[in-house]
Every structure is written in C-alpha cells, then in structure tokens.
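In the previous chapter we treated chains in isolation. Here, by contrast, the input contains two separate entities that must be folded as one system, with a combined length of 329 residues.
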Amino acid sequence: MKLVVNGSPLEVDAGDLAAALAALDYGDAKVATAVNGAFVPAAARASRVLADGDRIEIVSPRQGG
Amino acid sequence: MTLGVSEEVEFYGVRVASRLMLGTAQYPSPAVLADAVRASGCAIVTASLRRESGHLREGQDFWGLIRDLGVRVLPNTAGCHSVKEAVTTAQMAREVFGTPWIKLEVIGDADTLHPEVFGLVEAARTLSADGFEVFPYTTADLGVAERLLGAGCKVLMPWGAPIGTGLGLNDTYALRSMRAHFPDVPLVVDAGVGKPSHAAAAMELGYDAVLLNTAVSKAGDPVAMAKAFAQAIEAGRAGYLAGPIEPRDMAAPSTPVFGRASLA
C-alpha cells in the first residue's frame, strides 16, 4: 500500500495503522499518531483501516519552548 | 531554590514550588539541559511533539531524560498556524505526555510569531470543552484575555516580547493593566525574556511566573544562567510582596534636611 509517512512516500505492507507502525519498526516506542490530519488514539490504531494515499503522522516527545 | 509553602504557585489546582518555567530546546547537549533544569529549581518544563523515525527514535531518549528529572511537563503546540493543527497536536500531546495541560500556541505571523488570537480563543474553547487545561500563549490585550477566560482558560500567558528575541518586557503598561484587571488569575510572562532583570521585572509587576527558554539555552553558560534566573525571579517576587515605592518625578532627599550644619 502506498502511504505518506511523516511526509515521505512509502510502500508499506499493512492494512491498518497498528500494523503499519509494526511494519515501520516503531515497536513499543512512545508515539502519537494521526491519519489525514485527524488524531488516532493508540487504542484505535488496530481498527483504523488504511487506504492508498493516506497521510500518516507519527510524533514523539521532543525539545520545545 | 524551593519556595515556602505560602509562596507556592498554583495552576489548575496543582501547586508548584517554583515560579520559573523552563523550555527544553536549543541546549548545547542533553546533559547541559538536565543540569540547567536542576540548577533552575524549576518544577515545570515545556516540550513539543515532532516527527519520529521508527529507526532513529530520537524522541525516546529525550522522553527518558525528562522523566528522570522528575519535573512536570507542559507540552506545547509550537508551530501550529491553524485551530485544526493546534487541536490535533494537543490531542496527541495529551496521549503521549499523559497530561491534560497544554501550552496553546496558534501562530499568526511567521516573522514575529505573533499569536493569532481569534484562532487561539477558538482552539482554547474546543480544548477546554474536551477536558484540557489550557495555558494560552497570548498578547496582553485585555479583550482577548476576557475571551480566553470565557473559553475556559484559568491561566493566561501574555508575551513579554516576540519568542526568542530577548527584548524583555516590551509593554510594561499593558502587562501592568493585565495584572490589575485579573488579580485572581494566574498570569505568566511567556516569551521574549532575555536577561534575569527582565524576569525580575515581571515578578515585580506581580506576575505569578515566568516561562523562558532561549535566554538560558543560548547563554554562554546555560547552567549558571538558569541559576541566575531562579535568583532573579525569587528577588523580583520578594520585592513585589515587600511593596515597592511609587516612582516620582522630583528628587526627594533621603538624608534629613533638619539639622544640616550651616557651612556656606
């Protein structure tokens, strides 16, 4: 499936968001996710079905002011 | 630099023992950041959310460092220019950081980082209704402040000057007015502070706390500067409580005139 992950086009073999995170090696990393600009809570990732062209954002804590 | 119990400050029912809130960006190294946080005695640090790579996992080390410091985290929505971006970022921050606190930034202009106050009020209303405890980065405009309070904010954070400029308190009249209009609302000067004297001045105006980042992280010696800010904030607060004199235009001799020898 063709996805845009954090701004980069990627071919990912996954049908839902949880599977995509696993396929992209996030494992148990502390991240938050959004699909097409909408927040997807961790508990809802497995039920968030993905489609070609979906834009996925995966973020984590970082330095900030 | 721990304050006495009577001098603790309260945000959304949480009492903290320092009136300095410190940003975590732009330090020379993670070790300097950690040392600066410890030297400052601050109880609250700000943090952000940024893209994470599944391979590099840069955010995981940072998160571990912050957790080890034992301070409360105030996540921000830095860089958001729309209500939608800010609300979505806040939702992601609540899950990752495990806190309803959010430093709400909706930026209107890329050069000045001026708050976009209409979007700010709208985002504050949406987030407050969803259970967030919003710390809005705003201007010292009293009308906007009223709207933010009406939207559910119980803390206001007017800027001293544009973010990262180090110009200090650009409009002390406006900040003083804000303090006078909202005597019971926790007020935090957020952004623009460059030197410890700026922070002391904010405290002397009766502000409850100061939030700063660049002034410490980009200082020649960030750890020493963090301590200097802590001292300045404590001195400024003590000065405010002690009741400063009113300024006057004409000189007034402090040494008694009566009893002066006639030597002319």
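The first strand of chain B starts at residue 9 and ends at 11. Chain B touches chain A at residues 23-27, 33, 46-55, 57-60, 62-63, 66, 73, 75-76, 78, 84, 88, 91-93, 95-97, 163-164, 191, 213-214 (CB under 8 Å). Compare these points with the single-chain example from earlier in the chapter.
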